[in-house]
UniProtKB/TrEMBL annotation:
<dbReference type="GO" id="GO:0005886">
    <property type="term" value="C:plasma membrane"/>
</dbReference>
<dbReference type="Pfam" id="PF01769">
    <property type="entry name" value="MgtE"/>
</dbReference>
<keyword id="KW-0813">Transport</keyword>
<dbReference type="InterPro" id="IPR038076">
    <property type="entry name" value="MgtE_N_sf"/>
</dbReference>
<comment type="function">
    <text>Acts as a magnesium transporter.</text>
</comment>
<comment type="subunit">
    <text>Homodimer.</text>
</comment>
<dbReference type="InterPro" id="IPR006669">
    <property type="entry name" value="MgtE_transporter"/>
</dbReference>
<dbReference type="InterPro" id="IPR000644">
    <property type="entry name" value="CBS_dom"/>
</dbReference>
<keyword id="KW-0479">Metal-binding</keyword>
<dbReference type="Pfam" id="PF03448">
    <property type="entry name" value="MgtE_N"/>
</dbReference>
<dbReference type="InterPro" id="IPR006667">
    <property type="entry name" value="SLC41_membr_dom"/>
</dbReference>
<feature type="transmembrane region" description="Helical">
    <location>
        <begin position="452"/>
        <end position="479"/>
    </location>
</feature>
<feature type="transmembrane region" description="Helical">
    <location>
        <begin position="419"/>
        <end position="440"/>
    </location>
</feature>
<feature type="transmembrane region" description="Helical">
    <location>
        <begin position="391"/>
        <end position="413"/>
    </location>
</feature>
<dbReference type="InterPro" id="IPR046342">
    <property type="entry name" value="CBS_dom_sf"/>
</dbReference>
<keyword id="KW-1133">Transmembrane helix</keyword>
<feature type="domain" description="CBS">
    <location>
        <begin position="170"/>
        <end position="232"/>
    </location>
</feature>
């Protein structure tokens, strides 16, 4: 890659601005031409339209598929579909892989079955497996029939594994060599390739039945004597490999821990059937992170920012309904102590502090626990130990910060008893938040559910209702 061709993180923003400017200029000029009364008006209008279309198409042709995907996601639906029609058909498959699930759906809806089939046929088996769930069944069937025997078997294999497994992430494009050949033979073999598969940092050494015997790094291949045999140079100990059934989370942790670029995937008989690359792992981590962020906010799935009102409503209503119920419960808790609030108006000003601090503390705890679960650092047996530790943190914070707020309440309202109630309520609510922050994600994991989904919503609901009840209950007992 030359200096002029180097990509920078802000380039995609510049590309987006340029496309938006071209679209805006096209609209302004075509509107102006449309309003003019001139000879051969329709011909002039068509020429202007084609000129702007050619400029936009030329801009898109020079962009990477990932950049085009980013631009499509950032455009309103009408402009998105117009730009999509200008993309070269042979690039459709790559771009469909890059865009978000929600935007991909809007693009696929506009494509004819023949276009979808052509886009799918341009992809490798592992890429096609990623796209398959979004394609109509008849298109998948046509594509499947068009594949050769090896391609069909690879596609069937890739689609047979759960999406959070190594088998769903692996690709089949790899280089294998035998252990009984010389490095010179390997070098001659590699020169026959137009290009090596992406992220090839090692070759997989196999026997005649494709059993994994070791790995040959490109570094060893280049610096070793060409007359040596592969068996003399390869590494056969401490070779990190995966099976298709392995959890993708665990594979991602191994890639991070050992700084891997690629690794072989083997079946139960140690035959090499594919490989896992850092690109696959990074994509998986990004998707998992986005899913966790969305689930914490109570969103069911990734949402097209320019989706219709109805689509957005369907994506958001579930946890909003739960929030409505929890907010109603919190309001009824407050209603139970209306008489106390009427007698001591200061309670109305102070109770949101107790609930708010409890919610923040609980979300801190559950975030740490969910992260530890995702990293594989926490087992169910550790719940009691973690709970004890988090209760200790909550007790310390409750006494220190609750005490500070108690002194402040005493100073503002001239009541030492109110200050003591404030300190006690803050401490108790932080203990409640800590307990919920540990137990909610760990119990969800034990039940086989995603520990991250809705955690913050449940914590906030519990600390709001619990905080109001504790604070107003103590105030009613000791101040009335």
């Amino acid at each position: 890659m030359t200096q002029e061709e180097e990509l920078h993180p802000d380039d995609v923003q510049q590309h987006l601005r340029e496309v938006q400017e071209l679209l805006a200029r096209q609209k302004v000029v075509e509107d102006l031409v449309h309003r003019q009364d001139m000879p051969r008006h329709e011909l002039v209008e068509n020429l202007v339209h084609k000129q702007h279309e050619a400029s936009l198409r030329a801009k898109l042709d020079e962009l990477h598929p990932a950049d085009i995907a980013y631009i499509l996601e950032a455009l309103p639906l009408e402009e998105r579909l117009y730009v999509w029609d200008l993309v070269k058909a042979e690039r459709d498959g790559e771009i469909l892989l890059e865009v978000s699930d929600a935007v991909r759906e809007s693009l696929i809806e506009t494509m004819a079955p023949e276009e979808l089939k052509a886009a799918a046929e341009s992809l490798d088996a592992d890429e096609l497996a990623d796209l398959a769930p979004d394609l109509p069944p008849e298109v998948i069937q046509d594509v499947f029939q068009s594949l050769d025997t090896e391609g069909r078997e690879q596609l069937r294999t890739a689609m047979s594994y759960p999406e959070d497994s190594v088998g769903a992430l692996m690709d089949f494009d790899m280089v294998t060599v035998r252990e009984d050949v010389t490095l010179e033979v390997v070098l001659r073999y590699l020169r026959r390739f137009d290009e090596l598969p992406d992220h090839t940092d090692k070759l997989f050494v196999v026997d005649r039945e494709d059993h994994l015997k070791g790995i040959l790094t490109l570094e060893s291949l280049l610096i070793s004597d060409p007359e040596l045999e592969v068996a003399e140079v390869m590494r056969s100990e401490t070779v990190i490999s995966f099976t298709p059934e392995d959890e993708a989370d665990e594979a991602a942790q191994a890639f991070e821990r050992y700084d891997l670029i690629s690794a072989p995937v083997v079946d139960s008989e140690k035959r090499v059937i594919g490989r896992l690359t850092v690109a696959d792992v990074v994509d998986f981590i990004r998707e998992e992170s986005e899913a966790e962020i969305l689930s914490n906010a109570g969103l069911r799935e990734e949402e097209d920012i320019f989706a219709s009102v109805w689509d957005s409503v369907k994506n958001r209503w579930a946890w909003l309904a739960i929030n409505l119920v929890t907010a109603f419960v919190a309001s009824r808790v407050i209603g139970m102590f209306e008489d106390s609030i009427e007698k001591l108006v200061a309670l109305a000003a102070l109770m949101p502090i107790v609930a708010g601090i409890g919610g923040n503390s609980g979300n801190q705890t559950t975030t740490m626990i969910v992260r530890a679960i995702a990293m594989g650092q926490v087992e169910q047996s550790a719940m009691q130990r973690l709970l004890k530790k988090e209760l200790g943190v909550a007790l310390f914070n409750g006494l220190v910060w609750g005490g500070l707020l108690g002194v402040l309440a005493w100073w503002l309202y001239g009541s030492a008893s109110l200050g003591a109630v404030m300190t006690s309520a803050m401490t108790l609510n932080l203990l409640l938040a800590a307990s919920a922050g540990v137990m909610i994600p760990m119990l969800r994991q034990r039940l086989g559910a995603d520990p991250a989904i809705g955690g913050s919503v449940m914590i906030t609901a519990l600390t709001d209702s619990g905080g109001f009840f504790i604070f107003l209950g103590l105030a009613t007992l000791f101040l009335m």
